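INTERNAL TRANSFER SHEET
From: sequence group
To: structure group
Subject: Adenosylhomocysteinase 3

Please process the attached sequence and return the structure record in the designated field. Keep the field labels unchanged so the import script can parse them.
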Amino acid sequence: MEKWADSSDDETSPRDKQQKNSKGSSDFCVKNIKQAEFGRREIEIAEQEMPALMALRKRAQGEKPLAGAKIVLMETLGALGAQCRWAACNIYSTLNEVAAALAESGFPVFAWKGESEDDFWWCIDRCVNVEGWQPNMILDDGGDLTHWIYKKYPNMFKKIKGIVEESVTGVHRLYQLSKAGKLCVPAMNVNDSVTKQKFDNLYC
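Return from structure group:
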């Protein structure tokens, strides 16, 4: 039962723990890496609800069409050849066991449920501020990652080839940057796509 436990009673901050996955990597920060097996089962269940994405992954992973892309997202993009790093889009959205499963798979994940505001920004910074790693795409939900890179790492921001934003708030922030003449990279408003509008507003 220990694998299933959330360990939320453990008051030690994940930032203060030295954890390693089974491959010896410590390029992540999650609540409890021991939850990886349970999280992997949750991912497999979720994949059954995404037949189109799974079919795309199976069809294209041999070609690695995203080779060279350095993105902040995850497994399907990784299977298609991208290098991905991930931080949560808000302090409550992370499933600790799924974050552990991704970290166990070798993804640099910096997120746990119930982060403080300071933790949240620390995780975003650890996600992007890596020596020898320059992101060239941002997949954002809320605009915090884009905003952080723009404000703290302007030279890194200028080398980004594209931004995809899927929230109303994040799109609003992008429009503000654009109106101020400061959005120097292409950005795509996924929030207003027909697919997302139907999914969020009609089918949910």
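Handover comment: Confidence is low (pLDDT under 50) at residues 1-9. The radius of gyration is 17 Å.
Transfer complete.
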